[in-house]
Amino acid sequence: MSGEQLYVSHAPADLELVQELFSTVKNFPFGVHIAHEEVESGRSRKRLEGRLSNSDVVVAVLTDASADSQWINQEIGYTLAKGIPVVPLYDDEDHRGGFIDDAEGVRINRQDLTKTIFDLLSRLRSELAPLGALSVPNWYIRFPCTIPDCDQPVTLEIEQSQRTLWKRSRHRKLLTTSCEECESTYYFEPGTIGYVRREDGFR
User: Fold this and answer.
1) Which domain range does residue 64 map to?
2) Of the chain's two ends, which shows fewer C-beta atoms within 10 Å, N or C?
3) TIR domain: which residues (predicted)?
């Protein structure tokens, strides 16, 4: 998994929600473009078409705020015409319809965004999985060690299935990885792959 492109289509009013839901996703080594404003000029439309055409997956955030958005509807239609999969991320079944009515999506649980993020990651892993019915893509996040004067790259490899990750999350068994240089250990929440804490090494 490296170099894939993800485009997030959403209403401007949902920007804060979208940023929260995709905060972890943006840590993975693929591009995430979150649309920030409506496109007005022809030049902007061309740039938007380029982003959509180069996307491997498009996530359409469907809420009350986006129900009447012509831009989201156009982005969905353009994406499907290009043969790019669309993952609906929706508040209510009523927000789905048309050509994505049967698309497997993720329901937004505003009372438990952790579960929503987990379900979103599950769908993305499925959409971006390599060929092979039983294969599980080896996902990872890479970041610089935050110990002063260390700055070595640290990698958290995610080889477990989504089911295993959710079980670990329910039992509060954190994922860990360590810096090879200073031996500091980093802990992550298995459901969202969100950073929890760091324990300093002894070097």
Assistant:
1) 5-127
2) C
3) 7-94
